[in-house]
Design a protein that fits this description.
It is found in: Cytoplasm. With about 140 residues, this protein is of the alpha/beta class. The chain has helices at about 10-25, 40-55, 70-85, 95-100, 110-120, 125-135; strands at about 1-10, 30-35, 60-65, 85-90. The chain is globular.
């Protein structure tokens, strides 16, 4: 099984996980770690270390962070370098849902990474542009 860790500023990761579980149901081996305002980075390091220990039964770990170069990213980076974890930045709800739904069907964490990257690229739309294009084709619904 591929474990999933979401590390973010504030409670973003926790709420992304809560929202994903509303849609796909509760899951094992997925953890969210929050970096709270005013919290020392050392605390974040300890929380991440604890969560990694809780996922020791997983074959691989896919990590998500909110911002490239932020404290959550910098905390995960040593695990990427030293343990081969994969870290994707710019986490959003569609990528978390797809990671959960596909992690048991892929052969490798690399495959899961590619699915998540593709979903990320396909999950941002200009709604006005879509609506206007559909109106131009004679369709009155979005």
């Amino acid at each position: 099984m591929i474990g999933i860790i979401i590390v973010t500023h504030g409670r973003l990761g926790e709420e992304l996980l809560n929202s994903a579980e509303m849609i796909v149901g509760e899951n094992e081996n997925i953890k969210a770690v929050s970096f709270e305002r005013g919290e020392p980075v050392e605390n974040l390091n300890e929380k991440v270390k604890t969560v990694i220990g809780e996922l020791s039964n997983c074959n691989d770990i896919l990590t998500f962070v909110d911002i490239y170069g932020g404290s959550p990213f910098n905390t995960i980076l040593p695990y990427v370098i030293n343990s081969g974890y994969i870290c994707l930045t710019g986490v959003n709800l569609p990528t978390i849902i797809e990671a959960i739904m596909n992690r048991d069907t892929v052969e490798t964490v690399e495959e899961l990474k590619e699915i998540c990257i593709n979903v990320y690229k396909e999950s941002l739309y200009d709604v006005k542009e879509i609506y206007e294009r559909r109106r131009g084709n004679g369709s009155s619904t979005a």
